[in-house]
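Handout, section B. The chain below has 308 residues.
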Amino acid sequence: MGKLVIVGTVAFDAIETPFGKTDKILGGAATFIGLAASHFGIDAAAVSIVGGDFPQDYLDLLENKNIDISGIEIVKNGKTFFWSGRYHNDMNSRDTLVTELNTLADFNPKVPENYKDAEFVMLGNLHPLVQASVLDQMTTKPKLAVLDTMNYWMDCAWDDLMNVIKRVDVITINDEEARQLTGEYSLVVAARKIHAMGPKYVVIKKGEHGALLFHNNDVFYAPALPLEEVFDPTGAGDTFAGGFTGYLAKTGDISFENMKNAVIYGSTLASFCVEKFGSERMQELSSDEVQKRLMQFKNLTQFEIELS
């Protein structure tokens, strides 16, 4: 079982969907990744930054999930990163209403000394220079480095993004981002181009339509579990990444065959995330619930067929 370093935002979100709206609640990429990864009983640490306005209760919550928070810097006279968004009726598109970087504007991540030899690193969606600085701090090359990014960095930090993509083993992005990154509409061709940029494995998330895993000429597809209703998709992609990376850190097996299992675990956990606002569902999720839903996934995708 390997150590896992999680780098990303620990933040406040205010969310509005067709089902309701919230005031400021716990969010951020590192939060969702950490809560998902906590289901695998691994030694994980979150590296982030918050302000003096961040409640101790939220820090206690992360610690109670066995997430090391010594890498979360607290700026006493600063304010925590805040994002507010409104989802459209289709729940696939949203408008950003407010983005306040606050302490995140000067974030200089510091990996705790006892995690600089971690075998697994999950680089949540941040400026590529911040992601690269984390890799620079590792005393040994990680067994697996996973990177998430978004179209914003493709627009404003292209060269820096290309440099950090070269250094990772896995990239997780959505289909729209894969097309922008490569200029290719076909996701198969896009994945091939991304392989050429450096990553050995490419995970393309398709929201309610599942996820694709590419490695050389091999492709694996995992559907999303059909849900009666999606309450709030915020953090689902980060939850997927946390489940994916957490499972690999637990098993220590980074073969393509085992990554298929990791994709299923990531998809399973993401299916819970969307059932309540923000990280609320992930905070209370039990291991029994995860096991039951894994069986649903298995029944959804398993079949026998006579080949003539």
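Note. Residues 166 and 196 are 9 Å apart (CA to CA). Compare this with the example in section A.
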